[in-house]
Design goal:
Dihydrodipicolinate Reductase, domain 2; seven-stranded mixed β-sheet; six-stranded parallel β-sheet
C-alpha cells in the first residue's frame, strides 16, 4: 500500500513514524507548504516524491491513500478532493471547522464508498481502549468523565513549538477529542452546554472553555480547556465508574489510587497514532469500515456544531 502524507509538520512526522512500523506500507509522496520541508521529510522517510500541492500526489496513479495533516480549515475541502480522485483518506482531527463542511464530506464518502477516517486518536490509545473493552464486556459502566485539556499557546505554534500558519481552536479541535471519546465510551450525547472566556485580541479565539455533556446512558462529562495554562501541558482523563476509577494520560493508565495498569495485552503497539494508522490500512485492505470512520465520529461534529451555534448566539456574554 502506497501512502501520500500531506502536511509534513509535527503531527505529520508522528504518522510517518507509525507507518514505518506497518508491513507492506510505502510512503509514495510527502506534500507540504514548503518545498524544502517536504523534500527534507521525504528524504528522511524514503519517499521518492515531494512537492507543495495536494494535486501532485492525487495525480500519482500508484498512490492508494492519503493522510491529511494540514491546517484545520483545509480538511474538508481536501478530504473531498482525495475521494474525488479515487483515493482513500484519513484526515487528522478535526474533520472540519463547521457543520456544513462536515456534512459535505459525509455526502462525498457515501457517493464514493471509499474509506474516509478521521484521526480521533483517543479511540486507539491503549489506555482508553482498556476502559472501552471493560465497558463492552459489562465489567464497567461510566458514571462521569472529567477531562482537563491544557496548553500554553498564546501564539500560533505547533506541537514542536514552531510557528504555525493557521490558528488552532479549543472547540473544533481539542474538544472534539473528548466529545467523541465520551460518546465512544457512553453512547449518544443527548445534552451539551458550553461557556467560553474572553477572546485573545490577536488570535481572535477564546482561550478558555468549559463544556458539559450528558449521554443517553445518563453518564456525564465535564471538560475544561485552556490555552492559558502555564504549567504541565496535555490532557488528563478521569474515568469515574460504578466499579473503579481510572486516570488516563494519553497512552498510560493508572487507577484512581495511582496504581499502574498493565496495558501490554491491549494492542500490538503502545502508540495510539500508530494504532490509528494500522486501523486505516487494515480497513482499506479488508474493505470494511474502520473505527473512527466518518460515519462513527460524525455525531461528534453535530454536537460541536450545536455548541458553536450556542456560543455565537450568546457572543455578547463571552
Amino acid at each position: 500500500m502506497r501512502i501520500a502524507l500531506v502536511g509534513a509538520g509535527a503531527f505529520g512526522e508522528k504518522h510517518l513514524d507509525g507507518l514505518k512500523n506497518i508491513d507492506g506500507v510505502d510512503i509514495a509522496s510527502v506534500i507540504s507548504r514548503s518545498a524544502e520541508q517536504a523534500a527534507t521529510v521525504a528524504h528522511k522517510y524514503g519517499a521518492p516524491h515531494s512537492g507543495t500541492e495536494l494535486a501532485e500526489a492525487l495525480a500519482m496513479p500508484d498512490v492508494d491513500a492519503v493522510i491529511l495533516c494540514t491546517p484545520t480549515q483545509m480538511h474538508a475541502e481536501q478530504a473531498i478532493a482525495c475521494m474525488d480522485a479515487g483515493k482513500h483518506v484519513q484526515v487528522e482531527i478535526p474533520l472540519s471547522d463547521n457543520w456544513a463542511d462536515a456534512q459535505a464530506v459525509v455526502a462525498k464518502q457515501k457517493e464514493t464508498g471509499l474509506v474516509c477516517m478521521v484521526g480521533h486518536t483517543r479511540r486507539f490509545n491503549p489506555s482508553h481502549q482498556y476502559v472501552h473493552d471493560k465497558i463492552v464486556a459489562g465489567d464497567l459502566a461510566l458514571q462521569q468523565l472529567d477531562v482537563q485539556t491544557y496548553f500554553f499557546r498564546r501564539k500560533n505554534i505547533n506541537a514542536k513549538g514552531q510557528p504555525r500558519s493557521w490558528t488552532d481552536h479549543l472547540l473544533w479541535h481539542h474538544a472534539a477529542h473528548t466529545i467523541d471519546l465520551f460518546a465512544y465510551q457512553s453512547g449518544k450525547i443527548v445534552a451539551a452546554n458550553v461557556l467560553q472566556g474572553p477572546k485573545h485580541p490577536e488570535l481572535g479565539i477564546a482561550m478558555d472553555m468549559s463544556i458539559q455533556l450528558k449521554a443517553e446512558t445518563g453518564a456525564i462529562c465535564t471538560l475544561s480547556l485552556s490555552f492559558n495554562n502555564d504549567g504541565p501541558l496535555g490532557t488528563f482523563f478521569r474515568y469515574i465508574c460504578d466499579n473503579g476509577t481510572y486516570i488516563a494520560r494519553y497512552d498510560d493508565l493508572v487507577t484512581g489510587k495511582e496504581e499502574p495498569v498493565d496495558l501490554s495485552g491491549v494492542a500490538v503497539s503502545s502508540n495510539g497514532i500508530e494504532l490509528q494508522d494500522r486501523e486505516f490500512i487494515a480497513a482499506i485492505r479488508e474493505g470494511r469500515e474502520p473505527n473512527s470512520s466518518l460515519g462513527k465520529v460524525i455525531d461528534c461534529y453535530r454536537v460541536i456544531g450545536e455548541l458553536a451555534a450556542s456560543l455565537e448566539a450568546h457572543d455578547g456574554w463571552s
